[in-house]
Amino acid sequence: MVQSRRPRRSEAQRRGAVGGAAEELRRRIENAELAPGTRLGEVALAAELDVSRNSLREAFAELAAERLLVRRPHRGVIVASPDVPQVREIYRTRRIIELGALRFGEITPEVEAELHQVVAVLSPDPSAVDPRLMGDANQRLHGAIAAMTGASDLQRTLRQAMARVRLAFQPMDRETALHPLFAERNLQIAQTLLDRRPEDLQETMASYLDQAEQFVLDHLSERQDA
């Protein structure tokens, strides 16, 4: 008698492999470990992540839907490079979520712990912090602001937007003063939130996002003209 298979377990394992691979690639993008335009070799990456090539392809598709990866004819899968319309869309998303969080959100113990981590990185001397660590602190701060909403869907949406922001920022990490320019303001925002005064940040955050967007757009324009 042939034993019956256990499809549910097999499916759970498959989904776990896909989700694990997608999360690892997402983490690398968020941490600026994968540069825009990087080609992802399927065979080598599947072996590195210890997943099947089919599972890796599904992970690629998941991140392509988040616009973190793109599939190019004759080039395979590469890390996305956000363009001007995408940057504008990202910042519209950020304004809606972050300004709403400051107005209606709550500073929970979990949010407070994240804010303390931001302060710990930036408070000694923001201008002396490595640009990549500044970028990490920036991601953590805005993730904490999204967490103030208490809405997992909004947090997931902002996380995807911030990963794409990191891709837009990444070429500028060492080419411009992007991170030092915003590091002190990130520190001030974190400290104001820790003082339980989010209402004081509405105008500050709106101006912050306007300037950050314009900074990225100007730099993208310069790179296209070069």
TrEMBL record:
InterPro entries: GntR_C (IPR011711), TF_FadR/GntR_C (IPR008920), Tscrpt_reg_HTH_GntR (IPR000524), WH-like_DNA-bd_sf (IPR036388), WH_DNA-bd_sf (IPR036390). The keyword DNA-binding applies. Residues 15-82 form the HTH gntR-type domain. The keyword Ribonucleoprotein does not apply. It holds the Pfam family GntR. SMART domains: FCD (SM00895), HTH_GNTR (SM00345). Residues 1-20 are annotated as: Disordered. Gene3D superfamilies: GntR ligand-binding domain-like, Winged helix-like DNA-binding domain superfamily/Winged helix DNA-binding domain. Keywords: DNA-binding, Transcription, Transcription regulation. This is GntR family transcriptional regulator.
